[in-house]
Amino acid sequence: MNLLETLSTKPIFLGSKAKRNLERAVWNDISFLASVDVIDYSLLAGIDDETKELVLGIIDFTRQYTWDKHLEMWVKASGILGGPKNASPTTISSKHYKKRFRK
């Protein structure tokens, strides 16, 4: 969200080749994380002050989507313990996490 806010006043321009390379790198990294059922990762973005280059990294990949996370998703979606029934769960499968992250 911080990056999106900054881009509204200080846009970063990428050439088409750099954009394709960036998209491919993120796509490949996220495909790998999803293949080993990892969720809960984030994109860290910044500008290197010395080189004036955009620096990106995927961070916080600390959690696999295991049976307990699957159960948590089911309980939250069912409304058994309170909260709205059929609300969008905060815990989702690695496949759905990958799609949301890429979007």
From TrEMBL:
Entries under PROSITE patterns matching the protein: PIPK (PS51455)
Ranges of residues in domain PIPK: 1-103
Any one Gene Ontology BP term: phosphatidylinositol metabolic process
The entry's keywords: ATP-binding, Kinase, Nucleotide-binding, Transferase
GO MF term set: ATP binding; kinase activity
Signal peptide span: none
Region annotation Disordered: where it falls in the sequence: 83-103
Superkingdom per UniProt: Eukaryota
InterPro entries: PInositol-4-P-4/5-kinase_C_sf (IPR027483), PInositol-4-P-4/5-kinase_core (IPR002498)
SMART domains per record: PIPKc
Database matches in PANTHER family: 1-PHOSPHATIDYLINOSITOL 3-PHOSPHATE 5-KINASE-RELATED, 1-PHOSPHATIDYLINOSITOL-3-PHOSPHATE 5-KINASE FAB1C-RELATED
Protein known as: PIPK domain-containing protein
